[in-house]
Amino acid sequence: MIQVLEPGIYTMPERDYHADPVAAAPSLSRSIARLMVEASPLHAYVAHPRLGGSPPSGPSAGDDDMDIGTAAHALFLEGEDKIVRIPVDSYSTNQTLPDGTVMKAGESRALRDAAKASGKIPLKTKQYDASMRVVEALEAFRQASGLFVNGKAEQTIIWDEGDGLWCRCRVDWLPDDPAAPLLDLKTTGGLATATSWGRSCFQFGADIQASMYPRGCEFIRGEPPDGMLFVVVETSPPYAVRVFGLDPIATEVGSAKAHYARSLWRQCLKESAWPGYPPGIEWILPPPWIVKGWEEARLGGYGRAIETENTELIQRMIKQGNWGG
Q1: What is the C-alpha to C-alpha distance for residues 198 and 191, in angstroms, rounded to an integer?
Q2: pLDDT digit string, tens, across residues 199-254
Q3: Regarding beta strands 228-234 and 102-103, do their DSSP bridges make them parallel or antiparallel, or are they unpaired?
Q4: Rounded to two decimals, what is the model's pTM?
């Protein structure tokens, strides 16, 4: 595994990045920072590969549709060297290949496992074809937009915040121009709309990411990039592509979360203490859609009739002075 001794920009395998290559101390990443903020230091501890977690063993790959997005991401940014084509439609049965030869199920599984062991993504025929359609849409987007040119893919940024706090991030596309916005490529099985993807992006910590990544680049390059853009491509027809940025309120919240995570991470490392959830009762407020749904039910249909009857009954009881009992 690669060991990084100094702050800088590095090109390294994804597996080494996720194993945390910083020699000086366990480093803080976006995913760990999100756990610090949204869960607890204990959750961050058990997830970190240098603390309570396990180093990654390879890319996620198998039979699910998520591999199409993972593969398209790797193919577009890093090329064919990141994947291994397995010329079968199933790993569980013998398959007749186009040249008439038969590949046994055990042979195809062995090829799949060897690809994973080497850090590559194994793709069956249909997965590869589907991934290439996404890549074709991205290549057309590259030509039309001018994005994903004049830069490098999958660059690891490692910086020292001081007082024993090291951070790291892996930028999908680092422009040659330090002032240009950083690019993050996302795939989605849904719609690339503000309503759909915009709702889910905060679940993986897009606001924290939009704060940490530019900050790391400024530490290393000496100049802040113009924020971060998220390029989202759909993995089903029409393979539409859309570019999103976070508005100032979201980035301000993300910066506050990242600052909180850094402060808490520094304290936990110094004290070698990783507390879990705080004790006591946490009261849950209803989200706005619950309140809105109740108001709509109360004011419509049977709800309105019941309220009207109750109101008339109360008025009659007031006039008659009859309250039961």
Answers
A1: 10
A2: 899 999 999 999 999 999 999 999 999 999 999 999 999 999 999 999 999 999 99
A3: unpaired
A4: 0.83
Q: Which of 10, 42, 44 is nearest to 27 (CA)?
A: 44
| Rounded-to-integer distance, Cα 150 and Cα 173, Å | 10
Q: Which residue has the tokens 């799949």?
A: 112
- Residue pair 226/213 in contact (Cβ under 8 Å)? The answer is no
**Pairing of β 83-86 and β 121-124:** parallel
Phi, psi (rounded to 5 degrees) for 290? -70, -45
The burial of 31, by beta-carbon neighbours within 10 Å (0-12 exposed, 13-18 middle, 19 or more buried), is given as middle
Nearest residue to 31 (alpha-carbon basis) of 151, 184, 205, 256 = 205
Residue type, 247: D
The answer to whether 206 touches 196, Cβ cutoff 8 Å, is no
- Interval 297-322: pLDDT, tens: 877 765 555 566 666 655 665 666 65
Count CA within 13 A, CB hemisphere, residue 81. 3
Distance CA 154, CA 14 (A): 8
